[in-house]
Structure formats: C-alpha cells, structure tokens
C-alpha cells in the first residue's frame, strides 16, 4: 500500500483538527445484507431471499454459492438454520471484497436465481416434502447406512454418512452443544457409540440410533457445514475463528500485543495544540492512539463512528451505562423458572450458582443472580426453582446446559494377595536310666530324678531286709528315669532301652520338620463416576474394653475391614487418575484380654491406562529363627555334646501385594431403555 505523507505547518491548528486529519476512513461498501427469509412459494418450491440495500449482480456456482461484491454483512449470526428435509442452513460470511451466502443442502437440486431491487431470491426446485411424495408413489425403505469419522487437516471433525441410495435424505439440526442428524427413507445398520474424543476435534462422541445420529460436542463454540457428494453425506465441525478484531479492541493503547492495520502515514509538525510530533510511515490508527495518550484522551467506537473525548468523560459514560443496566435489573419484574436437572444433583448446582451470585460491589453484573434473585431445590423431582430477572435466568440456563451432562463411569477392580510360608526343623534327644547296688555298710541307687533314685533305693533296702539281697529291685517309671529331656516336636522318634542286673539305660532320639504355605486373595471392586468418590467395605468387628477416668469399664467395638476407597478422574488418552485407599486388617495377637489388630493399608495416587493393571505396593516379611537348648558344659563337648542339646531352625515368610485395574465403562454396555429403538 502506498504511503501517504502529510505535513502540517499551520501553527494555529487545534488538537481536534489534528485528530480529524489523522483519521483515514475505509472505503464505503456498496451493498448491505440485513435479512435472510426462507419458505415455500406458490409453486411448491422453496425460496431463500436475501434482503438488503444496493444489491447488485451475483455470481452463482453449482453448490448454490451466492457472491455479492462490495458488500458487508450486518447479520447477528453467520448461520441461519432452516427447518427443511433437504436444505439445512444458510451461511453468510463476509470477506475482504464481497459477502458470500452458501446454501447447504443434503443433495443437489436444480435452482434459479431471481434478482430484484434490494432482494435476491434463490428458488430451489424439487424440494417438496417426502411425505407428499410417498402419497404419489411408494418409496422402498433404504437400510444399511453406515457412519465414519475423520479428522481434517485443520483440526475439524468430519462425520461421514454413507447412504446406500439417493432417495435417503439427512436433516441436520443444531441443538446447543449437540447436533442431531435425522435419516429419512432409511435406517442405520447398527446402533452403537463412537467415542472420538481422542481426535482433538470439536466432536466428543457420536451416538448412532436406528433413525438418527446424536453428535455430542466439547462445547457449543463451533461452526457446522453439511454437504453431499455422491452417496456420502458429510457434516463438518469447524473450530470457531477467533474474533481478533474484538480482542484487539479490548487492548489499551501502547500495549505490546496491540496490532495496527491502518494505512501508513507520516506526520511532522511542531507546537500544534501544544504538542510536537514526528512520525514516519506509521499506521494511522497507531498515530491516533499516540496522540490520544499524549493529551489524556480516549476513543469509543459505535459502529463506523469514533467518539473522542477526555478519558474521564469516557469512563464516566461507561459507568453510567453500567448503572443503567443495574437500574433496569432492579426495576425489571421477577420471573420464576423451573429447570429440570437430568444428570447432576440439583443441590450441587444450587451451591455453584449461589457461589457465583452477584455481589453488591461495582462490576458484579457478571454474576449469575441479581441481589433480588433467589434459587431453591426440590429434591424429590431434582428440580431447580429460579426466581430472577429474565437475563439472569438465561445465564443460569446456559450454565446448567453445560454442567448437566452425563459423565463416564469407571470400574475399579482390586486384588489383595496375602501369601505366607512356614518351615520348622528340630532335632532332639532324651535319655536317662536307673541303677542300684549295696555294700556291707551302704545301699545306693540312681535315676533321672530324685524321686526315681529314692524309689529304687528304697526297693533295694526292703529286699535286703527280707531276702538279704538288694535284687531284684523295683524299676522307677520312665518319667523318673529320664535325666536329659531335650526331645523335638515328636513327629518322628526312636527309643532304646538297655537292662542289666543292677542297672537300666534309656535313649530316645526325636526329629521334627513342618512346612506350610497359604494364600489369601481378596478382590473388592466398585464403580464410581468420573470425579466422584466410591467406597466398599466388608469385614467384622471385635470387642475391647475401655476404662474411663472414673474407672468404669465399657465395651466398644472396632471395625476390622477389607475396604477399597477410590476417587477416579478420567484423563486424556483414556487414562485414569485415581486417589486410592486400600485396607486389609485382620485379628492379631491377643495381649492379655485385649485383641490386637494386624493392619495392612496403602494410600496413594496413580495414573493408569484404561484396562491396565498396576501394582500399588507390597510388603515382604521374612523371619528366621535358630535356637539351641542344651545342658551347660556338657552340651559344648565335641561329638558327645549332641547328646546334651536340642537344635531348632524356623523360617517364616509373609508377602502382601496389592493390584488395581481401572476400566472405563462403555455406555453401550450399561442398562438403558430397551424400547428406545422402537420409538426412533
């Protein structure tokens, strides 16, 4: 663009004159579009009329695209929805040098364009109602339509419906954050759900029913275009184009992010309106901002008019406008609206709305409810009762439409494995004996115990008194004959006895070996909503005694649970973030009269892929015990010492492992209305 140089040398020009000279107005548009009218005409065709001023000739293409050169659009919405089985909508988009109106249809039809002063009529022929056609001739039902989804190069979502016949018609309607595509003269071959959230497009999932598609989107900020090529009907979901002009208008002069698009100019003047300014090849709108900043001025745009005044006056004007809005809210009559909540809890939504209530501070108009408004909940019907001005009720309805949506569910399956093994080995010996004898002056006896020795000696004395001989004498019992009692557990024993005239010798060898292995698998599982908390518990209670400060004993009960407590959150790429608490308690050792509790518990947070199994943790415990029981001194003798001692060797192992597997539940496998297909 050629640069324009303006040099002002008049010394008495005011600042206001300078501002007027600095503003460069864009070229005027030759035509305007201010209305789109649709409907049937007298011949049975369907007409789309574009109304406006100074509408000239148009260029038409096979897709019914109407270009109006040197025009601009004053429509509030780019897309005008059309309730018709063939024509879905009319998209009016403003370009640099023209306005383009695109009429989107489900199939190609002949059309005619009629130009009149300030009105262009597009007559689409052959769009009579399919119901009316069915009266003239019988149309065979089309079946076997299929659905596919693809991601475009610019991130748009493409829903493609393959139609088996040209008689099938698709009617596309937009309903908030959902788009419903109704298939007429046909049906889909399979009812299912397509989860396409991983593609990173505005489309979240596609529910395929018998006669229609329900397409859920991430939010309602998207643009749709539908068209048909041969037997493929496509619905494109485009990400919204950022309104850079409105964003730039919010930036203050001098902001580094502000972009200037005006035609470059050069200024060089001194002492005009008490300022000196030299600018070379600077956009005119940037030059205007510099001058306004220098003189403490601001601008306010209203359409094509720029109002310039001191900054204080602009601020006062905006403040007065806010006050007018608040006064209108204070004076507006209150209305009551009942909002049926489908999926969420009405009391939870009530809390969110109350937390975002308008306060008394300045600028609080961005809240949901006014100071006069109120909200209550009917828990029986899960309904919100809102009393407020219409604008606030509309805000509440918009918020609820975004929050009251079904959420996915997660099945959490836990495995708690407790394994134990025990090994014990013992070797022992028991031996002893008894003997007796007599001399001229003494009678003596020996045994394993003093009682045994006394018994055998007493028997010898009685024999001498009666027969003159010490023998035969009474033999003590085995318990009284055993002097070294270091036997094992008794799983295996071998005994020997040696008997002489005046003595008896006893020997018993014992060995024991025990091995044991046990495994306990506990498997709690629970389903929780995305972001919700769930808990499952099973176990028993034990009683224990508590003595208070007055010495009074009372019995209380303590839970010994197997418990799984989880709060899942579905992350992108089908991953599940979980806050987990797993408890596996059991009765332990008894201390006196009080029962102990063995506790196994893990608390953690993990991120796991859908369907994957993760080991949360484990505890491995091994106890080794070696013990020796012996007779002092004698048990330490080489070789012979083994007859005076017992060896014990024990090994016990305990292992605890905790596994968790999350599974995102497919809504196709959950219970639903079994008659839904009949009503399609």
Describe this structure in words.
The protein is mainly beta and 680 residues long. 15% of the residues lie in helices and 50% in strands. It has nine helices and 41 strands. The strands form ten sheets. Strands 28, 29, 30, 31, 32, 33, 40 and 41 form an eight-stranded antiparallel sheet that branches. Strands 5-2-3-10-9 form a five-stranded mixed sheet, with no helix packed on it. Strands 15-11-12-20-19 form a five-stranded mixed sheet, with no helix packed on it. A hairpin with a 2-residue loop joins strand 21 (264-272) and strand 22. The longest helix has 21 residues, at 311-331. The two termini are 60 Å apart. Residues 1-29, 57-62, 129-142, 359-365 and 671-680 have low confidence and may be disordered.
